Structure formats: C-alpha cells, structure tokens
Amino acid sequence: MTTPSTPPEHAAPVLRSPEFGLAVGFLLGRFALGMEDLHYGYWDEDLPVTPDQLPRAQARYTEELIADIPAEVRSILDVGCGAGQTAHRLLNLGYRVDCVSPNPFLSQEAKSLLGDRTTIFQTKFEALETDRRYDLLMFSESFLFMKAAPALARAQALLRPGGYLLISDIFKLPSDEPSPIGGGKDLVSYLALMRASPFELVRDTDLTARIAPTFDLIQRAYTEAIRPVYDLTLARLDASHPWLMRAIRWRFGAAIRRYEEKHFSGRRDGAHFQRHKSYRRMLYRLPGFEARHSDPTPHGA
Prior knowledge:
Layout: H1 17-33, H2 54-67, E1 75-79, H3 85-92, E2 96-100, H4 104-114, E3 120-121, E4 134-140, H5 148-158, E5 159-172, E6 185-186, H6 187-196, E7 200-206, H7 208-211, H8 213-240, H9 242-264, H10 270-276, E8 277-285
Helix pairs in contact: 8-9
C-alpha cells in the first residue's frame, strides 16, 4: 500500500518540469491574485473577464464540478489534488475523500489545509497501491498528464462495482494547422479508447466557451506585462553586455525565436483556444451499479 511521504523539514523538494510549473503557478497566482486553485476559470456571462475575478471564476468551476457528482456517491479519490482546495470543499460537504499527488510541494500545501481529515498518497496515480475502493474517482485537469490506458486500468481497479469516473480536462481537436496553445490529449483517440473500455458514458458537458475567457486573460498578461518586461530586459542586457548578447543570439537564436513565436504571437487567446481545443467534463460509470443510498442529495450537503 502506498502511503504519504513527507520531505525532510526545510528541504526543497526536487520537482520534475510539469510539477515545477504547477508549483510556481500556484505561488504566483496566490501572491498576485489571491488564487487558491490551479485550474482554469468557469466564466458566467455576467462575470467580467478581469484578473481580479479569476478566483471567483475558479470557484465557479469547482461548484460546477461538484454539481456533477451523482447523489449516491459518498467516497471520492481526488486524483491530482493540487493544493487541496477541491478536496477541502468536498470534505465540508460530508464526502469521504482521499487524495493523490506526485508533487511534493503541493502535497505539503494540501496537507497543511486538510490535516488529518484525509489521506494524501504522494505518488503517480498509475503506481498507487491501496486496498481502499471508492464510489468516484475525480480527475480535474490531471488526466492529461497521464498515459490514458494505464490510468483507466488503475481507475477500474480502485472503483467499487458501479462506481463513477469524473474527468474534467482539455482535449486537442483535429486541425490542419499547429495549435498555438499546448496541452491536452487527442479527443478523437481518447473517445475511441473510452468506447473500447468498460466505462459507460453518463454525461458529456462541453465547457469550452466558458473556459476560453481564461485564455483571453493569459493573452492580456503576455501583451501588457510579460512582453514589455521581456523587451526591457533584453534592451538593458544589450546596452550593458553587447558582446555577450550577440554571442547568445548567435548560439541560441533559433530557440529564442521559437520562444517568442510561441508566447508573443498574439494567438494564445480564447478564440484560438476554441478553434484548437475542447474542454469537456465527462461522467462515466462502471457496469453493475446498484443504489446503496436512498437519499437524493450528497451527504452533508
């Protein structure tokens, strides 16, 4: 059985590239915007698309996610729990919740928030070994980091008969042109894999239009803050160290141009997101379901 692991006190955790990016994004978002979540925002039509409203849009995303949990569910495994905010809300609603996170920094953040109310398995989901079984497994923007087939096999083993799988994530759409926005599994391949699996689709909700405004905010950040700081830094270095900068451009010019094209092309916005990506929340169920609870609402709601 995999158990939580805690890094030595004051030791800096060693993070792989994706884990490093998530940890840095969490710290910057918390400092600059008061964010406590790592996922994208869900933007209602009446919510202004401004940086100060991003925490509210993220909270709305979580509300929508929780609303999709079937009434008979009592136990949940939050796969890729981030800093633990979703698990915290679920616990307060009366669910029994365990968490999985391979990120030692975020695991410690979740542990500080959740205390002894949950078990946090610090491991990759595909490697998780436990004798516990759950009513529902939740993947909120974590499935894209996993190999789909092994993850589904592990999910099947960790669910009770008739249990549920809730996946909320970005997927890539077929396109004749490269996407300026990275991330996401190929939607066509994913859907084919799910049709061949034992999981039965209960509900498929397309959230693309509600998630897309987050990318308009990201584009604004690059246009109004990141690009000006980048240009000022290069200008300062050119003035202070002209020979060094010429050498850097000679040696790394192609890489620099690729970086600038990726981040400063002006195409990492909501419109391009909707052209190249599909954001879906999909609820699946294993066969053999029998209602074990008669009350129609989640325990503690």
